[in-house]
Structures are given as C-alpha cells and as structure tokens.
Amino acid sequence: MLNRQATEIRAHMSSAATGHNTQAGLELDEILSDRERTAIESACHMSGVEPDTYHRWYQQKNTISAQLAHLDRHALLQAIQDIDRSDYSLVDEKLPSNGGLVIALPHHGHYVFCAIQLMEHIRHLRDVHIFYGDPKSHTGNEMFDALYRRIFDHADCRAHIIHSNARGMATALRALRNGAVVLMMPDVHRHREESYCVPFLDRPLDVMLGTAAMARKTGSRIVPIVSRVDAELRSTAVIGESIEPFKSRALRPSDASDYWTTQDIFHFFESIMGPQIIYWQYMRQHFMRSSRFPFMHPDTFDETWRAFSSDHRTNPQPILTVCLDQ
Amino acid sequence: MSQPPPNPTLTPTRHGATLPEPNSAAPSTAFILATTKSNIDHATDLSIKGMISEVIGAAPSYSTVPSEALRKLKDLPGHSAIVVFSDQLTSSLDAPILCSHRGQQRFLSVVEVILNNLHGYHLHIENIESSFSLPPESPPVSVLRAISDHLDTSQEIESGWIARELQVKRRPDNRLRESRIRQRTFLSAALHMSRKYPECDPMRFDEVFRQLKDLSSTLKHPRDIGNAQSPGN
Fold this sequence. Notes:
The complex is a heterodimer of chains A (326) and B (233).
Chain A: H1 2-18, H2 22-31, H3 34-47, H4 51-68, H5 73-83, E1 101-104, H6 111-122, E2 128-133, H7 142-151, E3 159-164, H8 166-177, E4 181-184, E5 196-200, E6 203-207, H9 210-218, E7 221-229, E8 235-239, H10 254-273, H11 283-287, H12 298-310, E9 319-323
Parallel strand pairs in A: 1-4, 1-7, 2-3, 2-4
Antiparallel strand pairs in A: 5-6, 7-8
Chain B: E1 9-12, E2 18-21, E3 29-32, H1 37-48, E4 54-56, H2 66-72, E5 81-84, E6 97-101, E7 104-108, H3 111-118, E8 122-126, E9 131-134, H4 140-154, H5 172-196, H6 202-218, E10 226-230
Parallel strand pairs in B: 3-5, 3-8, 4-5
Antiparallel strand pairs in B: 1-2, 6-7, 8-9
C-alpha cells in the first residue's frame, strides 16, 4: 500500500507538470485579493510563465504534503528522492576540515525536501542541525517538527532541530564551533523593526542578519543553496560558492559586516530564484510591495541625512498628551 | 439676521449614518463622516453635482489630503460644504496630536480644529445613531473630543466600516515601530551605499551610523512618545 502511494505521487508529478488545472486555478482565485492576483501576474511575467503554472505548483505542493503524510521513513525518503533529484555528494567538497559550515537555504522550490536530503547526507559525515522558528511562536512549523520525528528521531542520529530562541542561538553557536553544519533559512523575519532591507528583484526585502552573524562569530563559511524547479516541477539543488563572512573592524560595526555578507547571500539567491520566482514561498508578499529599494549616492548623502534626521517620523520626540476626559 | 443652521435635509444611508444635503444658504460646514461605501458614494455624487466643494481623506481616488485641501480653501466661495473622512486621517502627518481619552492614547487629526478655529467652519459630526454640531471657534479640545467619540462609535458599524484597519496607526506603539522601521531602512541604504562606493568618507558614515544607533536606543517604550498630560478645557 505504501509503495502504491509512492507510485501515485510519481504519477501526480507527471500530470501536474503538464495538465491544465482549471479547478486549482479557480479555487486559488477565490481566496486571492486583487493585489495578490496582480503580484502573481508580475511574478509570472518575470518568470516567463503563464499564471496557470503557478496554480499547478500551488496545487502540487498541497497534494504532495497530504500524500507524504502516510508514508513510512523508507517510502518517504524514496518519494522525496523522486521529486528532489539532487546529487548531495557535491556538498562534500564544501565541508571544511576544521570548523563549522552554515548552509543558507531560502524557502524556494522544494526546499523542505532539499533540507531533508542535505541532513540525511551530511549526518553520515558530521553533526548537522536545522535552525528554524519555534512552533510555539511560528504557526505551521510544527509540520517540520513532525517530519523530523518521522525521519531522524532515532538513536545515534546526528541530525537535529534547533528552534530559534535564545537557547537555540547558543546551541547553534556551540555546534558550529564544534565543526557541525547548521542549515538556516534567511529569507524570513519575525519583527520588521528588527530587520534590515536588501535590494531583491527591484524591491526591498526585509531580512535578518543572523545567518551572517552566526558565521562571523564562529569563523564559519556560508554556502548558499537554492532548490531550483524544472519543467516537470521536480527540483535540483544549486550549490553556490562558499562565502567568507566580512570581519568586524575597529571602525566597522558588526552590523555593516553582517549586512554585506547577507548581501552576498541574497545576490546568489537572486541569480537562481529570479528567473523562476513563482516558486518562492514569499513571492506574493514581495511583489505586493510597490516601493523600490532606496539606493543612495555619496553626492546626496548629507542632504538626505539632514532631511531624514529632522523628520519627526524618524525621531518621535516626547510630546504633550491632550487629555479629553471631562 | 442670524445665519440659518446647517443640514436642513437628512438623507439616510445604508449604515444608519446620514449625509446631509448641503444648504447653499447655510454657513460653511464640514461634515465628518465614517468611511462606508454608501457615504463614499454619496459624497462623491454630491461633489460631482457641485454641492460639496471638497472631500478630505486619504484615498486619492475620491479625496484630497488635508494639506492640499487647506491650501485650496482660499479659492472656495464664502460659504462652502466640505466632507471630512476623519477616520482615514491616521498617518503621522495627518494625525499629529496625541490624545488621552477613556484610558486610551491615540493620535488624532488636526484639520478639523483648523477648519473650525481658523476658517470659521461649523462642524457636523455624523455618528451611527446620532449627530453632533459644533459652532465655529469651539475650544480645540471639544473638537478633538467629538472626533474621538466619532471614532469610537464607528466601531459599531461592523463590517461596513472600511477604515477600521487603519485605526491601529494612531497608536503610540505603532508610531514607535514605524520610526524604527524607517531608521533600519535608512541604515540599510547607507550600508549598501558604503559598499558600492568604498571611496566615500568612512568617518562621515560612522558618525551617521552612531547617531542612528543613538536614535534607536533613546526611544524604547511607547510612553516615551507622550509623557506629559495637558488637561482638557
């Protein structure tokens, strides 16, 4: 029965890649706002595909999630390998002989399967951890905890979860210093006021600098990896060149170093994701933004700073409160 | 001879609020309305017919921002009717006055005070089940109190109140959050620039960076924005 389900998944993959799925398109259309539809059209235009491709992708992900839920570990890994056809032995040359490694993986393509296969491969070589938001504060992440328990939760397995909290940060830093690999997904943030923005496909993208900071503090390199989707809606991991984090200097704050490192990570992401951006989980929100990244030039920097620093929206000073109670 | 009172004719709208048919003999009046579809349609219709001189709000498709509307006031006839969708005026530019009312702090707009005190407009505030008028040159705190009450009663319009989600922008904690986002955006742009143009003066950039850090650490709590009480009259 489990093999039959894996076969059904393969069959679904074939039909999803080629079939015109009007029903999925109609269902999706019902829940989208006008702005979201416009955002999807912009992304499809950038990707050079029709909106129907996005609808099929959307339906495929939902269907596969439901079908994988009932497979045992062996069948699950087989089904994943059917979809994600990457050769993860290519990562081996990136693993340092001394020290840890941070793998930066965006929420693009079949990133979950990419992460699972990376962990399954690397755990035979050294400790590997995946770092993501605590399900207590990040709704939806409990699915990943459940997936981990099905695949990796057994004795002597060197693959682990680290939840993103104060304790998790300390665990991740210690793991990297001990030569482990830590998978991080830097294209998300929780609080916008704590994030920085980088230019990404002509728009500002709010990101955290944690991936870069973690690498800098532990002397680890960063390898960016993107799950690239093919015409059959299967995927292959594209492994980027190792990134050496910028170091802090006496006159260079750590924010600057980490920002520049993060720029390099997203420059690689953009090069692979840009031509097929519809497969990025946060595509809709990103293309709904109408503002452009605020590029600056040294010639006008002082003037811009003066206007910005004197704007009361930048620095809301303590003011009187008018009491209206009688 | 005394001036006739405003709003001799009331036209019921779908959500119970009413938009008066302006009286050409009435004094200049600003009608404060909740943003509902029926009120928007009615105001737009009266504007097209020339019975309303201006619609003040934050939606460019059918309204004018307060600063622009006030600039155009001198071109309006001696007696004019204006509609103000006060519930749309939530930005830090349009709503700069921090008020405390019934245990809640929020920023309120100032255009109504300006119209009433500086330009001699009657204010006619339409709430869901009642209306309220203020004569010209009313105490500013009375105007603000009336606007505050208007926003509170608009909560009862339920799903028809289009400007409901905007009201969070009046909160001091939201203003603080937006301030921090602006600082981070500027810092990001400066960091991007400093790498693209490595020849630019690093000392100058470091000074700006230090000032931004100081800005960020100075304000840590919404109470830092409003920390003095001014009793109402």
